[in-house]
Here is the input.
Amino acid sequence: MNWHKYFNYLEGELFWKKRSREEFKSDASWKATNSNFEGKRAGAIVTSERSATSYRQLEIFSKAYKCHKIIWEMHYGKIPHGMIVDHIDGNGLNNQISNLRLVNSVDSAHNLPMQKSNKSGHVGICWHKAASKWQARISNNGERFDLGRFDSIEEAIEARAVAENKYGYHKNHGRIQ
Here is the structure.
C-alpha cells in the first residue's frame, strides 16, 4: 500500500492526510472523515497482553496496522516475509526511524526486556534449589542451552554474558521495563 497517500511522517509520528472523495461511499462520510482526522496524529496506544509492550496502532480500510510497520514501509518499502520491525530501544512508542530495524524472529528475541517473573534480576539466571547453586541458561534459534551451575551469581552472570555475545544478543536484551 502507498502509505504516503494517507499519512505524513514527522519525528516518529504519523499524521492523517486529507483523503480523496473516491475512497468513500458518500459525501457525508468523506467530509466527516476528513474533518475528524486530517492533520491529526494517527493511531491509538494499545498494549499487548503477552509482552506488556505498548504500541501505536491505527485502523484503515477496516484493518488494524501497527504504526511502526507503516513508518518502516514509508521509508524502506514492503517488509519481507519472515521479517519483523523491531524497536531498538525496546520502547514500542518510539517510532523514530532511527530506532527501528528490520530483523528476523531470532534477532527480535535477542532484544527482549526482562520478564516480570524474573527473581534474580538477571536474564537467564536462576537459583537451582536442589544444587544450591546459581544456574545460567540461554536460548538460540528456539533451542535452550544450560550454561552450567555456579557458586556465585557473578560467575553465572559472566557465563550468560559470554553466551549472549556468542549468539549475537542485542545490548538492550534483558532491560528492565
The helical segments are 27-37, 67-76, 105-109, 153-166. The chain has a mean pLDDT of 90. The first helix runs from residue 27 to 37. The chain has four helices and ten strands.
